[in-house]
Amino acid sequence: MNSFMRLIPVSAGLLIAALAPAIGAEPSLMAQAQSKNQKGDHVGTADLMQTRGGLLIKLALQNMKPGQQAVHLHEVGRCEPPFTTAGAHFNPAHQKHGMLVGEGHAGDLPNLHIPDSGALEVEFLTTKVSLEQGKPNSLLNQDGASLVIHATSDDYQSDPAGDSGDRIACGVITSQFAQKGSQ
Ligand SMILES: [Cu+2]
Known about the structure:
disordered N terminus, 1 helix, binds copper (II) ion, Immunoglobulin-like, disordered C terminus, two-stranded antiparallel sheet, globular
């Protein structure tokens, strides 16, 4: 039984290496969020990859309303419309919101500019959060985390959420290699 359990991390590591050859020899941690709007329609996917320089987030959205919209990492991995279940912004360092005010929340991200097509692909790198379990800034903590998109833009200063309006889309951040019963 024990030897079987030990096989799981080995095969996960090989899979990571196969999926992320650009990162080099070191396996990376990866996670994904499937974003849905309040009606439950799929509107995009976020692929998260822990790199040596920070957490790379690749966001691919479709069927969105054009315009500037805030995107944040929220502190709970639960997306039930109207998405208040996702909690506040991910903020383990207990900062006030917004880069214009100070350090900001760890879950703060720059605004999305969605074109008339309603589709957008964008990548960001943030050094304020991690996928490494056990770190204080890990998104993969006990209650998880979500990627939330708001109806309007973040003003980068109003506490607690940049005056960015309703939560229009939400996706639970899920480790790509989480095994049921592994904790
Ligand atoms: Cu938010």
